[in-house]
Amino acid sequence: MITPVRVVIALCLVAPFVAMLWVGSYAKTDPAFIGIPFFYWYQMLWVLISTALTMLAYKLWQRDQRARQDTNGGAVK
Predict the structure, then answer these.
(1) Which contacts (CB < 8 Å, 24+ apart) does range 4-12 have?
(2) pLDDT in tens, 21-59
């Protein structure tokens, strides 16, 4: 069953892949950040963003599973 929560979970997990596969959006040197070209610091920033999005997806998944157990009398289908 597709629910809004599961759509958000999927978006959280897919967003980093789309951001990293769309190389044209970050294949440049400017703007530099403390002397680091954009190409590098953008990717490093996505490491942190990906971690946060994965944690959010996991927490949402746990909450969704608990809600499904409550509505199905303890059994997950």
Answers:
(1) 5/60, 5/63, 5/64, 6/64, 8/57, 8/60, 9/57, 9/60, 9/61, 9/64, 12/53, 12/54, 12/56, 12/57, 12/60
(2) 999 988 999 999 999 999 999 999 999 999 999 999 999
